Amino acid sequence: MSNVVTVESYRDIAPQGTIDLIYNLAGRLRNKSLLHVNSTRFGGGVAEMLHRLLPLFSNLGINTRWEVMEGTPLFYQATKSFHNALQGEPQIISPEMYDEYLKVNKRNAKKISFESDFIVIHDPQPAGLIYKKLRKTPWLWRCHIDISRPQRKVWNFLKEYVFKYNGTVFSLPSFAQKLSIPQFLMYPSIDPLSDKNRDLSSAEIEEVMNKYNVPRDKPIILQVSRFDRFKDPLGVIAAYKLVKKHNDSYLVLAGGSATDDPEGLQVLHEVKEEADRDKDIFVLDLPPDANLTINALQRAATVILQKSTKEGFGLTVAEAMWKAKPVIGGAVGGITAQIVYGQTGFTVNSIEGCAYRLRYLLNNPDVCATIGANAKEYTRRNFLVTRHICDYLSLMVLLLED
Amino acid sequence: MSEFEFKGCVEIKELLGRRADDERQLLDLIEEVPVDSIYYHTHSFFLRHFYFAGAYPNDFANWAAIQVRDRVLGEKLAEVTPSGVGSLEDIRTELIEIIDSHLSSIKVVPVIVYGQPFYFMQSKIIEISTGIKVNNLGAFIEALKTIDASAIYNHMFEARLRVRRRRSDFAIWIAAALGMIELAQKVENIDSYMYSLEGLRNKLIDLCNYQLQNE
To answer: Which pLDDT belongs to residue A394?
Structure first.
């Protein structure tokens, strides 16, 4: 059997009729070409998403290319500072850094062929390529970062380029800016055929649980996230302690490696210190490619938490929902777009609220099953890669037929 | 006999960059925003909730009840059902009257404290052929079982309001092409705003099956 993933591979997973709808939509774009430009081929969510989406566009008959711009150390230093400033952190950016940004964009503009019917530029790094825009070709600026409270100076600099696009695409309504060009909303998505989300056998799940010595004789409460204060792992432990007075259970905190993040290391240290006092708390410091492990942990869990106090979109919520698990999330950012209160999970505003909903779900397995089933169907329609493809095709139809 | 062609749709969601933090701002912005934004937050709400109906059937009511925690306004706004009024401008007027009257009856303007602001958006709907055409009730039922749920939205909701056909496409075709006036009326009488799209699909199939079995 071939392992090549095509649009057809999703027929039994996507909502009924969706694949045919995608074919019909793509039919209106026959012989059109599409170019994506970003700043890295590997690492990070954008590259991961493009690796997944591009073969599907090609499979639909759209001639799709992906160009990666080349930078210098100063350029990457500048764009890292842009990134932080756009996310609201105060940054000092020198005139040399602005100059380098423009120089690198110009240099790349000479190398990249923009012969395409539709162009999508991802994130701030290549935004300056817009000066190569020809009148007839729609260019979209796809911003993947949270720019709800940008540092004004940097945003004003970047806005001069953004204005020249035919439209922007943001991941959440709160990221919208005052712009004279259309701003579209496109939620991120998960791939149900990836290692992180594909169906697993009981043996595969068991293997992972054994590997990490997590027993399964009691309900498992799980949070998967970086060891970061905004993910509130200490708040999760505090909520778990309240729950444990009434319900015996395990808590698993699984997160990415924090070796390059001093603040993350400190948080991990504090979490481990708290966890050491309770043998039922498991802290798993996982490598970045632990996709199968995360999948197995999510499938073994009874209730999944994402008790963030600040969050962009929070794909771990969609991942958990896809596995038909009830999710309790912090009432922030994209979590509120994914969790319909009481229907696909619960959003909470406090440690006490989190503990209360945990107890409610642990004691009501029927509610867990109903909410889990709702969550899976909601994710099927709203947060799978098939919907993402549909969104891109729709935007192409809209802007090309306009 | 004329054929019925099922057409699905996709919704492109556009952000307006306008937000309300309290009910007074909500009122002011409802007065200002394009009518497509009123459509997005009332009518196409159903296109985004395929599997279950929300707490209330429009975004304004849900925001007031959940984010502002003003259940009184939430309940009043939930009564604004697009089918019950003539046009999108009529819906806008009704929303304004309800919020204005509510604000006149209280001393302090309710504001979000822990909740999220209301972000105004608007819809662009693109109609897409599904390639499925039918010319009898049996085939119609079979198609209903498999089509993308957006086709149900397109023919039941979109046809009525934005396309201004006043009746659903299904009811028009069942009456005109199949001559089944009673079934057409039953389809037209469905309180569509109380169902999710999947619920509506099942309701339509049930009504048509009943007709087929009792012919």
So the answer is: 96
Any B CB within 8 A of A353 CB: no
One domain, residues B33 and B101: yes
Residues B195 and B106 in one domain: no
Q: Would the CB atoms of B12 and A394 count as touching at under 8 Å? A: yes
Strand order across the beta sheet in which A220-224 lies: A281-286, A250-256, A220-224, A303-306, A327-330, A345-348
Both B16 and B103 in one domain: the answer is: yes
- Boundary (domain end) residue, out of B58, B93, B122: B122
Tell me if chain B has a CB within 8 Å of the CB of A352. Answer: no
The structural domains of chain A, with segments of one domain joined by +, span 7-189+384-401, 202-382
CB A339 within 8 A of CB A354: no
Interchain contact A395–B (C-beta under 8 A) = yes
Residues whose CB is less than 8 angstroms from the CB of residue B214 and which lie 6 or more positions away in sequence, other chains included:
none
* The pLDDT of residue A157 is above 90: yes
Q: Which residues span the domain enclosing B197? A: 4-8+128-213
User: Closest chain B residue to A349 measured between Cα atoms?
Assistant: B114
Which tops the pLDDT comparison, B115 or A98?
Answer: A98
Q: Which of A183, A341, A395 faces B15 most closely, judged by CB atoms?
A: A183
pLDDT in tens, A211-265: 999 999 999 999 999 888 889 999 999 999 999 999 999 999 998 754 556 778 8
Give B27-37 pLDDT, tens digit per residue.
999 999 999 99
Mean pLDDT (chain B) is: 90
Of A176, A343, A395, the CB nearest to B119: A176
**pLDDT score recorded for residue B194:** 79
| pLDDT tier, A1 (very low <50, low <70, confident <90, very high otherwise) | very low
- The whole-angstrom separation of Cα B146 and Cα B168 is 19
d(CA A175, CA A333): 10
Residues of A in contact with B151 (CB under 8 A): 17
- Confidence bin at B11 (pLDDT 50/70/90): very high
Does the beta-carbon distance from A378 to B150 stay under 8 Å? no
B117 and B53: one domain? yes
Distance between CA atoms of residues B115 and A336, nearest Å: 10
Q: Do the beta carbons of residue A211 and residue B40 sit within 8 Å? A: no
Q: Are residues B182 and B146 in the same domain?
A: yes
Top residue of A380, A394, A401 to mutate, by most chain B CBs within 10 Å, is A394
Contact state of B148 with A15 under an 8 Å Cβ cutoff? yes
Distance in Å, alpha carbon of B143 to nearest chain A alpha carbon = 10
Q: In chain A, how long is the greatest CA-to-CA distance?
A: 66
Instruction: Give tens-digit pLDDT for A168-201.
Output: 999 999 999 989 999 999 999 999 999 999 999 9
Is the domain of B168 the same as that of B99? no
Q: Residue A343 and residue B10: Cβ atoms within 8 Å?
A: no
The answer to whether the Cβ–Cβ distance between A341 and B55 falls below 8 Å is yes
**What CA–CA distance (Å, rounded) separates A308 from A119?**
34
Please state which CATH number belongs to domain A7-189+384-401.
Answer: 3.40.50.2000
Last residue of a domain, one of B122, B146, B176: B122
Distance from CA of B102 to the nearest CA of A (A): 25
pLDDT over threshold 50, residue B58: yes
42-101 of A, contacting B, C-beta below 8 A:
none
Architecture of the domain made up of A202-382: 3-Layer(aba) Sandwich (3.40)
Task: Determine the Cα–Cα distance for residues A40 and A341; give it in Å rounded to an integer.
Answer: 37
B105 shares its domain with B155: no
Q: How many domains does chain B have?
A: 2
Binary contact (B126, A398; C-beta < 8 A): yes
